[in-house]
Amino acid sequence: MLDDTLDLSASLDPGLNIHPLCFNSGQLKIMHLNTQSMVSTFNELLLTVNSYPLDIAALRETWLRDQPQLLDYVSIPGFVTEFRNREGIRGGGVGVYIKENINYRRRRDIEYAHPELEHLWKKRLIKVPGRNKYGRALVGVIYNSERMLSPSDWLNSLENLLGYLTVCWDGMLMLTGDINIDVLRPSDHLAQRYQGILDMFELTQIVKRPTRTTKTFKT
């Protein structure tokens, strides 16, 4: 789910969810991945991050805990890490790697405003002349786990979250993650509700191809 001012780069590997976010001063290259246990797949993740000129790598299903040794193991030189790990429930978790030269601030106030959702937000400031909304980007990663909320309740919370953002943010918005809704079935009521929420907040679904080998498209 991306703001409609964004652009895609045809030169990137189509097998990865990597999208450059365009600013007046250049591009911010962002990738989203499902890690399914960062500890067991860390070598593959490290290879991927080092193989592409990324600024931000957004992650879901990190399966991490707030343990210093664990978090140190998954650190990558040249990147700052931010994680939001589950407490008392197995699996899940979201996180990001952010290039060290990027000026950003984590927006915990957004996370605290909707604690029922599994999400994490960063505000990035871009040096551009004058006061321009395209010089600021709010980047989030979100994971819809059926273990946490019912699909209907989750969509209600997503709508409330985006409504909150329209009040507290007026720059560019990019939301990465796993919505777990099959939008290749447009007659499905969940897909219709999800698309209605995107339309309401003038957001555009960028990923257009199936993301499962079963030929379903769960965003």
UniProtKB/TrEMBL annotation:
> Known PANTHER family for this protein?
ENDO/EXONUCLEASE/PHOSPHATASE DOMAIN-CONTAINING PROTEIN (PTHR33776), PHD-TYPE DOMAIN-CONTAINING PROTEIN (PTHR33776:SF3)
Q: Output this protein's name.
A: Endonuclease/exonuclease/phosphatase domain-containing protein
Lineage of source species: Eukaryota, Metazoa, Cnidaria, Anthozoa, Hexacorallia
